[in-house]
Amino acid sequence: MDERLAGLSRVLKEHLESVPFICSPSAVVEQLDQVHVIVQQVAALQLALVRQADALGVAAVQGATSTVAWLADRYRVRPGTATAQVGLARVLDADCPVTAAALAEGRVNVEQARVIADAVAAVPVEFRERADKRLAGDAAEFGPKQLKALGGRILEMVAPEEAEARELAALERAEERAYVGRELRLSDVAGEARVRVTGWLDRAAAAVVTAALDPLCAPRGGGAGDVRTPGQRRADALVEVCRLAAACTELPANGGDRPQVVITVGFDTLRDRLGSAMLDDGHLVSATAARRLACDAALLPAVLGSDSQVLDVGRQQRLFTASLRRALVLRDQGCAFPGCDRPARWCDGHHVMHWADGGTTALDNAVLLCGHHHRLIHHGDWRVRINPGDGFPDFIPPAYLDPEQKPRRNRYHRRE
């Protein structure tokens, strides 16, 4: 037995026997701190010896099939424990010299070293030195749990451009897998008068489906009296979209604007096919997917009503055009009826003066209304007008609600 290690063993045994006689709490803490450092140093020595045994082929000399098998048999530990020990020894030796040195000095514990080694092994070889140095420094402040979180994004810290490139590549691979794995199944349920609909869509395709269904998922009557669950409304919307598509080969208009997928994407991203774009539900899609979706979209100027968009289509057209609807959304931002919180997607364009009565299809003769308030204006005693002073809609209540019939406005969407 090595004399130095034998001496250390004797000292440790003596200290173990003296523990019951320690009466001072501060002395316990002091010795516990010292022992913690020694334990890490001994662990560093053990890992170095495991690495050396692995390099020298000790397992083969001893008749074992591998270093892992030899360690598990000789020291009666689980194969998983031996595997982790050999793996940590190899990574510390090859890629984590800073962490290995910190472990040998007791500044990093074995759990931290294992987390760091796993994180460093996951980054490209050319960035491992920087990752090792960064995480070894962080170990002075963070435990294994926090270090694991930092290690998960260590490439962003030491090589942000490489991290972004790898993230985008992973996103594109995930999109390809999702596309290849797309499917839709309609399965009869034995003994029941219904069919189970299941399937998978990639995010871009799901965004298209969601945009088509949303206008038809709004509660009927503004929500009052509609007892359908959200799931039932979605099921009805899917059937309605398919029925309309089968009847006219085109999806229904959404108050004049066909169902759309909203993508937030920079012009450079769209042009150069680099980077990513965001769907309106917050999920990311690659630039390639954004370009594919953008093939069916128009690039509009930030201010509607410019020379490229004719908003006042006059008497020649009864239905609201897509550009006019966008102008309505920009102005009203949702149902314009006082107190209504329905978003623009749930609303239709309404002629203040009916088209049949000579009203024009123009911004100064239009207002956004949800289904409930659209019916209320058509069949009730409320009136609506466009204020000539500022161009916003005013609603006039019936006299039985307000004898003075003071104009009212929606303050929910647009606060003044």
From TrEMBL:
Superkingdom, taxonomy of origin: Bacteria
Domain HNH nuclease positions: 323-375
Pfam family, one: HNH
SMART domains with a match to the protein in the record: HNHc (SM00507)
Keywords: Endonuclease, Hydrolase, Nuclease
Cited InterPro entries: DUF222, HNH, HNH_nuc
One GO MF term: zinc ion binding
Family the UniProt entry places it in: Belongs to the Rv1128c/1148c/1588c/1702c/1945/3466 family.
Descriptive protein name: HNH endonuclease
Source organism (scientific name): Planosporangium mesophilum
